[in-house]
Amino acid sequence: MRKYYPWLIICIIGLAIFIASCSGEDKDEYVPVDPESPVNVDLSTVPYAKLSDYKFFEGDMKLQIPALGVLPYEPISQLFTDYAHKKRFIWMPKGVKATYNGDGKVLEFPTGAVIIKTFYYDNVQPSNTTRIMETRLLIKKEGGWIFAEYIWNDEQTEATLTTEGGTKDVTFVNEYGNLKNVNYRFPSNSACLTCHKIQDSAIPIGPKPQNLNSSYAYADGTKNQLAKWVEMGYLDSNYPAEINTVVDWKDTSKPLETRVRSYIDINCAHCHQEGSHCSYRPMRFAFSESTSNTNLGVCMTPQDPLNDGTSAIISPGRTARSALFSRLNTAEESIRMPLLGRTIVHDEAVQMIQEWINSLPNCN
Description:
The protein has helices spanning 6-21, 189-195, 209-212, 225-232, 256-268, 293-296, 323-328, 347-359; strands at residues 57-58, 65-66, 71-73, 85-91, 114-124, 129-141, 144-152, 159-162, 166-173, 179-186, 197-198, 201-202, 215-218, 221-224. The chain contains 8 helices and 14 strands. It starts with 5 loop residues before the first helix and ends in a 5-residue tail after the last helix. Strand 1 and strand 2 (65-66) form a beta hairpin.
């Protein structure tokens, strides 16, 4: 009897399977994957009329699944916008990358870069569903950054370009379990420029090394965001090993003062800096500058008195005498700070600011 070796039988079966797969009977089983990003950004024709024209997302656009080359990111501390959640992404064309320009300075982005930010609410009433409100783009053209604001339709299938902004009522349950009603405001291009500017030139606000030096759970594993940007070819690796990094202001395990400084940095510093909208006021709220009580306004006389009994920008131990607290703790448009981006009080942040003011030593 002829002896058959197991390896020979395996080879024969494998060959039969290979021949069958090449016979044309199952043509649809193999679909080649396009190695190129599908994103469409033609700097000569942007902004497009519809968000879908950019092809930033795969499949159903409302799911916000990034297409190849579209990288999600998340600042450590985030700007408050009436409790809206945000999804942020960055895309750059091939062959260019951002460069480090200082821990607390926005990365120097190349021409063609696009910053994508979608605003949405969970637990929208009465159906308790998720609703996307808007997607904002910052596009770096040869002459500088331009804004592109897209408002989502009620069907959540498309977002269309607007330059004039608008409003929409929304009722939702926030992450703390509280029912909130908001007349949500979509910004006009001029409103965007109020906050996003230095010397009247448009700029991004959030993507600074100090606010990206943290881990993020990507689809292929958790990694430091700056390192991931380098891996993607979106950032030069010339940034320093040690970065003066903010903290998540909601993290109560961190020092109270550091949490406050991190919150004020992302919510206030972009206006309270040289060449920006509130540069004439004495406060300097950047994380690198707020180690100084003078820059924070502690025991400093307000330049614009509110005539409500406040005697200092921050009066230690006395929130009722602190102008900064009064401006944060109101929704009145003529008084509140920030000027734009919110229409209701950020209750949890106000509570933190109150705790911090009460912890400060008295003025000499």
